[in-house]
Automatic annotation (TrEMBL):
Its cofactor is Mg(2+). Belongs to the Nudix hydrolase family. Residues 4-137 form the Nudix hydrolase domain. It comes from Plantactinospora soyae. This is 8-oxo-dGTP pyrophosphatase MutT (NUDIX family). InterPro entries: Nudix_hydrolase, NUDIX_hydrolase-like_dom_sf, NUDIX_hydrolase_CS, NUDIX_hydrolase_dom. It holds the Pfam family NUDIX.
Length: 149
């Protein structure tokens, strides 16, 4: 068994109002059940981070990435399953109807577009001390300010 961390790609999808898209994970998911999350997932064998980013956005929302605005950050964490991961998260623009994402059946139950002042909602259903998704969101909004959006 490999001791290398699993690699993940995440998309912070941005709309024209400077909000970021989040979706709630199904309560039946093994990792982070019933919590808010960015779009993304694990790299498949032989896949680059960018390829996974494009694939995951389409699989989880039905949208297609039109522009990568920049890297938000790389985050190391250990999942509920005890496996270490490195997640690379990017700010992206997408093509598609932003009011009607096609959530992946069985994996996500709802979605929200959040403004910067609303990030506290991301703490819902998270264990105390698990502020990773909120940290990613805050970093995403900082990155948006840096690029002037």
């Amino acid at each position: 068994m490999s001791t290398e961390p699993l690699r993940c790609a995440g998309a912070l999808v941005v709309d024209d109002e400077g909000r970021i898209f989040f979706q709630r994970r199904s309560p039946h998911r093994k990792l982070f059940p019933n919590t808010w999350d960015v779009v993304g997932g694990h790299l498949e064998p032989g896949e680059t981070v960018e390829e996974a980013l494009f694939r995951e956005v389409t699989e989880e929302t039905g949208w297609s990435v039109s522009l990568i605005l920049g890297l938000v950050g790389e985050y190391r964490y250990t999942g509920d399953d005890g496996l270490d991961r490195i997640e690379s998260d990017f700010l992206v623009r997408v093509d598609g109807d932003l009011a009607r994402p096609r959530l992946e059946p069985g994996k996500h139950t709802e979605f929200r577009w959040l403004a910067e002042h609303e990030v506290a909602v991301l703490d819902e259903s998270r264990d105390p001390g698990d502020g990773l998704i909120r940290q990613i969101a805050e970093d995403g909004f900082r990155a948006l300010h840096l690029i002037g959006l």
